[in-house]
């Protein structure tokens, strides 16, 4: 890796460890990436729901609102290089020219890119070191420009875990500090000497519910994830890595603690985020909106991720025939006739409203939100 790419990678890692909004993070990372992997115009940034791999937000300063026909093609069309397809692929990265065997002329996606002045397209999934996908990055080049080469792809493969951790952290902190966000997680910021610098509302109740939260000292789970996060940032090594722990509270519920080192100014700090370890929001949504059973919900969640019948059967330890029987029932309950229609219905009913909500939030400097919107919910 040459010096330019090394400096760009270090810069993204530092940005991922700094407290900032998601849009600000994307803006700064766009500048850093340009020095290592030149691109046309601006990148397209996406967040996705890790439980379904469906898009929850999109940001590009030159495209404040993603065109409806683009979303229709993404979820109903027959094309390649789709965000969810790339997100579940082994490499987590794909170019449109590679996906079409070097001739993208029949791809509706490529035709749209040409209309917007682009030609080459590279999609990279924002996948953490633990394998969770929190978003995607789209890079473009104009007609006549060089194709994305292997050195550039290797650099992107090294940088995407930092991008994923930064996006995950920004979403969590945004929800915790957003007064309009119901059931928001709690955040406390500690100095490197374990003094509490600041907290969001309701944190004291969350701390008191932890096993050794007696009100006189910080619970051991908080100190553990904070210490892990600070150690990961020592000597500049993996400063964007997020430490995590799952804890059973005194009240009998599970919570997840995330520790993230913050590098802002000369002193080191760490943010600890506490959130309920509830099942993925898509699970409750599918059950309430369509009356699916637990097993039908599990099958539908895997269909949304693009899993095949054999993959679903292996994951759930059932026969392929049983999977097909569940799918027939799911189709009846949701009023669709195919897997593609099922994915499209769930996206346009519950995720497209979140995309539009986040577009408005980005324009008014509000925190972006992840996850789907329940059918009966309004937009805050």
Quick overview:
With 380 residues, the protein is an alpha+beta fold.
Protein model, in words:
The chain is α+β, with helices and mostly antiparallel strands and 380 residues long. The protein folds into three domains: 3-176, GAF domain (Beta-Lactamase, 2-Layer Sandwich), CATH 3.30.450.40; 185-276, Beta-Lactamase; 281-363, Winged helix-like DNA-binding domain superfamily/Winged helix DNA-binding domain (Arc Repressor Mutant, subunit A, Orthogonal Bundle), CATH 1.10.10.10. Helices cover 45% and strands 17% of the residues. The protein has 14 helices and ten strands. The protein has helices spanning 3-16, 22-36, 68-76, 83-87, 96-99, 108-115, 150-177, 203-208, 220-232, 281-290, 294-304, 309-316, 320-334, 339-363, and strands spanning 44-48, 55-59, 93-95, 120-127, 133-141, 186-191, 196-199, 242-248, 254-263, 268-276. A five-stranded antiparallel beta sheet has the order 2-1-5-4-3. A five-stranded antiparallel beta sheet has the order 7-6-10-9-8. A hairpin with a 4-residue loop joins strand 6 (186-191) and strand 7. The longest helix is centred in the middle third of the chain and has 28 residues, at 150-177. It is globular and about 65 Å long. The termini are far apart. The model is unreliable at 376-380 (pLDDT under 50).
């Amino acid at each position: 890796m040459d010096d330019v790419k090394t400096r760009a990678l270090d810069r993204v890692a530092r940005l991922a460890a700094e407290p900032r909004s998601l849009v600000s993070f994307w803006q700064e990372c766009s500048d850093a990436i340009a020095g290592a992997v030149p691109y046309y115009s601006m990148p397209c940034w996406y967040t996705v729901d890790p439980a379904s791999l469906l898009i929850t937000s999109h940001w590009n300063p030159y495209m404040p609102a993603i065109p409806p026909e683009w979303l229709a093609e993404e979820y109903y069309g027959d094309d390649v290089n789709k965000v969810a397809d790339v997100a579940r692929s082994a490499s987590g990265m794909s170019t449109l020219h590679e996906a079409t065997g070097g001739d993208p002329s029949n791809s509706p996606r490529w035709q749209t890119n040409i209309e917007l002045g682009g030609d080459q397209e590279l999609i990279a999934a924002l996948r953490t070191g633990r394998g969770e996908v929190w978003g995607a990055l789209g890079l473009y080049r104009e007609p006549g420009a060089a194709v994305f080469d292997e050195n550039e792809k290797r650099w992107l493969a090294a940088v995407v875990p930092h991008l994923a951790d930064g996006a995950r952290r920004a979403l969590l902190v945004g929800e915790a500090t957003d007064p309009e966000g119901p059931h928001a997680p709690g955040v406390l910021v500690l100095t490197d000497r374990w003094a509490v610098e600041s907290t969001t509302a309701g944190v004291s109740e969350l701390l008191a519910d932890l096993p050794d939260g007696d009100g006189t000292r910080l619970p051991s789970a908080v100190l553990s994830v904070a210490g892990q996060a600070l150690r990961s940032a020592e000597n500049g090594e993996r400063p964007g890595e997020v430490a995590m722990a799952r804890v059973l509270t005194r009240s009998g519920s599970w919570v997840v603690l995330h520790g993230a080192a913050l590098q802002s100014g000369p002193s080191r700090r760490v943010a600890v985020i506490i959130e309920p370890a509830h099942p993925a929001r898509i699970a409750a949504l599918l059950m309430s909106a369509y009356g699916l059973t637990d097993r039908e919900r599990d099958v539908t969640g895997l269909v949304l991720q693009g899993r095949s019948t054999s993959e679903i059967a292996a994951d759930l330890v059932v026969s392929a025939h049983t999977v097909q029987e569940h799918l027939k029932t799911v189709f009846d309950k949701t009023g669709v006739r195919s897997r593609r229609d099922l994915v499209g219905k769930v996206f346009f009913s519950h995720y497209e409203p979140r995309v539009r909500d986040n577009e408005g939030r980005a324009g008014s400097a509000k925190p972006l939100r992840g996850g789907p919107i329940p059918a009966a919910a309004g937009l805050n």
